[in-house]
Amino acid sequence: MTLYLAEIELSEGGEDALVASLDKLAAQARESNGQLIEAQAGKEAHRAFVIIETDSADNAQRIIEGAGLGKTGVKEVQLVGQDLDHVRQNAAKANYLVEWSLPEGLTLEKYLARKAQQTPKYALVPEVSFERTYVCTDMSKCLCFYDSPDEDAVLRAREAVETPLDSVTTIKKIG
Fold this sequence. Notes:
Blueprint (H helix, E strand, L loop, with lengths): L1 E8 L4 H18 L3 E8 L4 E8 L2 H10 L7 E7 L3 H7 L5 E6 L6 H11 L10 E8 L4 E7 L3 H10 L6 E6 L3
Antiparallel strand pairs: 1-3, 1-4, 2-3, 2-8, 4-6, 5-7, 5-8, 6-7
Helix pairs in contact: 1-2
């Protein structure tokens, strides 16, 4: 099974509508021998970030459409920094999401080697806990999740590991 990311624009229906859609998405995934791994909603960005484990991008798209979340692109991702069991148990712990468009020419191998080298530097900002990263396998971007007291601490942590970012989104627990 493979992990897929879908970024979904949130409708005006609010959190209750999103919770109902995600419940339907989880059921659709189970019916398709897949699983909803996590869903995070941005407070400011009016987007939800959904990770689905299933057998193909086409199936991930069918699951999303079947849940009434519209037609959206899905991207295959690789989980970095944690295992799936940890994510399932601690998905709600993250409260900040960093998006980073990866530079052209960067390979997954180079990314992982650099990440292994830089990760110990998070200790320089102990109030921030790095939770996990999803790297798009097409190397277009990555999503990094943090537990942090505030956005400034996330920015200090990114500086400590010498890694740029495109945006920081405050995320909230859904439901």
